[in-house]
Each structure stands twice: as C-alpha cells, then as structure tokens.
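Holo prediction. Input below; ligand is zinc ion.
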Amino acid sequence: MPQLYDQEQERRGVPRAAARPRRRRRRRRRRNRGPLLFTAVILLGAAVIAWNARNGAPKNNNTGEIEVPEWIVQDLLPLNQWSRPGDALPQVNGVVVHYVGNPGTTAEQNRSYFAYLAETHETSASSHFVVGMDGTVIQCVLLNEISYCSNHRNADTIAIECCHPDETGKFTGETMDALTRLVDWLIGTYGLEREDILRHYDVTGKECPKYFCDYPDQWEKFLDGLTFGAK
Ligand SMILES: [Zn+2]
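Structure of the complex:
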C-alpha cells in the first residue's frame, strides 16, 4: 500500500503516521505563543511610552516651510553636504544657542564661512541663524532642514550662532536684544518651554556659549527675559 502524504509532508518527506504527533506538538506550541505575543506587545508599548516620557514627545510637526518675520535677513547657504545637506528636520523640540568663538567677526562673515565649507571641505558646520554684534539676524538654513551645530540634537533643534566682540564671549546689548526677539519668535512658533532653550553646553558639555558657561546666572537671567506660553 502506498504511504499517504499530505502536502506539507510531501515537502518535508515525512510519512503521515510519524507527522501526527509532531503536528499536535506544533499546534500546542502555536497556542502557547498567544500569551507570549501579548506580553511582547505590552512590553513594547511600555518601552515606547517610557522612551517618549524620557525624551519628550514631539512638540510639533515641522514638515512645512515656515515664513520668517521681515526683521530676519534670509541669505540661505547653497545646498551642500558640508553645511546645508537639505535633510529634513521633522520636528523641533528645542533651540540651541552658541557663540561663534571668533571675536570681532560679523554675522555676514560667519555666514560666508559656512557657505565656503562647500568648497573648502574643512569641516561640517552651520546654524539656522547667525546673530551679529549689531543685532542683524541672518537665516542660513531653512527651518524644516537640519543644520550642523549641536551634535546629536541637530536632529530636533534650531541652532543660533551669536557673534561677540572679544575673548570673553560676552554678547553686545544689540545681540542680546536680537537673540531674545528671535528665541521668543521660535518659542511662539514651536510651542517651546523654558527647558527647551539650551546652551550648546547643555547638549555636549562644550564650553559654548563661553560667557553663559562662565556666568550661568546670566543665562538664567536671559531665560527669565523670554516670553513663554504667550499663545
Ligand atoms: Zn556651540
């Protein structure tokens, strides 16, 4: 008498009689997988919630182009992999403030430095805005694109570089006024809170912006002068 095979056994070459207990075992195993799968889904859900709580849930959607106020000079960098890669910045969870570290240079000069990186390939660097010693604000990178300034927070923050007259890194009154106006506008645009306004130091421990690292009370004073929750 020919051996009876079902399709499955045909593929595996297992006779029906031998396959039966194995099939039963397989069924049992499949039944047991139910609660296991359920537990895995619950654990995964809990992990996602914990991750969001720790890192802050996305505050906004930043996929559209945002028009800047008229007091901002828009002078975008050419698209290039060294300073303006054109990669999306899908959400904005904060603002990071820097100092240029090159005393006496203007906003235009720092913008040009970023632009020339496309040719010099010296390093990867840029910021969304540069604030000059005279209060000029230049936009170098669109707000829905990343800039190269704040290390791992490039992916979800807006970067502002500020010029300064000397080695102390202290900003002029004009720079402070323009920075306050700019950060206030970003707070309103993205619904940010006090803890979202960061020094580069708060991201990586780098001594930047120098003056606000040397005088953290002055940084707190700057934060006190910002307007949160106005909308
Ligand atoms: Zn910095």
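The two ends are 85 Å apart (CA to CA). That is the main takeaway for now.
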